[in-house]
Amino acid sequence: MRERWDSRTAFVLASIGSAIGLGNIWRFPYVCYECGGGAFLIPFLVALLTAGIPLMVLEYAVGHKFAKGAPLALGSLKKGFEILGWFALLVGFGIATYYAVVMGWAFNYLGYSFNLAWGDNTQGFFFDQFLKISESPLQIGSVQWMIALGLLLTWIAIVAAIWKGARTVGKVVYFTVIIPWIILLIFVVRGMTLPGALEGLKYYLTPNFNALMNYRVWLHAYSQVFFSLTIGFGVQITYASFLPKDADVVNNAFLVSLADAATAFVGGFAVFATLGYYSHQTGLPVSEVVQTGPQLAFVTYPTIIKLLPFGSVIFGVLFFLMILTLGIDSAFSLVEAGAASLIQKYKLKRLHVNIGFAIVAGVIGLIYTTRSGLYWLDVVDYFMNNFGLLVVGVLMCVAVGWFYNHEEIREYANSKSDFTIGKWWDFCIKYFTPVVVGILFITNVVDRVKSAYGGYARTAEFLGGWLVIIAFVIVAVFLYKKKRRT
Ligand code: PHE
């Protein structure tokens, strides 16, 4: 039986739920901080307008028109593009393996909230007591059992949430979208009333035109937009395929993309205000107060929680529940999309696919629960986003812009919508986005040939980066070749 959403609201919330996630309040702040704060916002906005929204329209239109999951929908554009659909889902799978671990951290922090266990030195607590971080990725060290337990709980929660497919999802998302928004606003207000907050906000909001010359800032802006909107994962295509025939495409694409970007932008106020507070406390400039990277949110938010005038424990608990609810609908959107696509082609049982997915991703995820886990997380995240999602994005543009009649796709989208898009869309899909993203991608490959990512050992970069990408290509081709069951 084909899956369907109960209502338009269910679809919009599910799609927003997939988009809004840890990407907005965990990844966005640290990527932004790494790229120099205000230096990042302009490229981010440009990427949103030239790639984010146009590709969201593309994914919805293709999913809706062909009414199939990502692989078969892309395969309807031109046969071989089915491989791209599988590759997209696999990149999403790679992301889900570590994404669930970050949710596992949040489970632990939820527990810590009850006695504010992180104390005053939130940074030291995170690295030394919680992760017990080793010296380098190759010094793997033992699994940290509490983190592994968090990971287990995360996967159990994900599988439970999608037990019955789109019908359950449509209900769960009411909670997982609306509650987080309310809590986030409380944090923004508290963050902004901390001493020194203004300095942090200045760093966040002042554009830095020199940074616009640095290709890396643009690269991160594009990949963050893909990650955050869940574009290039095959998810939005598949979600749109569950829509009834008369549903709106363009409106929904704008709504979801703008809601997602706005959430990241607003969340940034809480994080950067706290960095300003740190700078006020330590006398260091905002750009140097915290070691940047995937741990940023786990340093800044606990600080805010501790400094709340009252009810720290309650807000701490609410906050980490919020992170979990934000993350869960992103994570399960991927399982849903993968499952729907596999079921469509091979007629497998939903329950088997969901559970199989959770087990495989959970076991792979154990690597990030070791003492070297943060390093691996960083390498895999970098490769999945900058080499995985961006490639999918470019190839989707090429598929529609060059191997299919892109005007037909635009007209299809417009015929379904109150509000229509013009030829600028064709221009973005056919020329602008593939060329710009393609150049960023090639420059980045050249950079990686010159030096390993993040100063890690080449072996670590190979194992966590190139090897994963190669493996995904092989599996994608295999899934394409394997005969469909009817
Ligand atoms: N868009 C999600 C976010 O911003 C990213 C994501 C999507 C992660 C799907 C996993 C699966 O958090």
UniProtKB/TrEMBL annotation:
A GO biological process of this protein is: sodium ion transmembrane transport
Give any Pfam family that matches: SNF
Give the subcellular location: Membrane
GO cellular component terms, A-Z: plasma membrane
What is the membrane topology here?
Multi-pass membrane protein
Q: Which UniProt keywords apply?
A: Membrane, Transmembrane, Transmembrane helix, Transport
Q: Where are the transmembrane segments?
A: 9-28, 40-62, 83-107, 143-163, 172-198, 218-242, 254-278, 298-324, 351-370, 382-404, 424-442, 462-480
Q: Which domain of life is it from?
A: Bacteria
Mind telling me which PANTHER family this protein's record contains? BLOATED TUBULES, ISOFORM B-RELATED, SODIUM/CHLORIDE DEPENDENT TRANSPORTER
Protein known as: Transporter
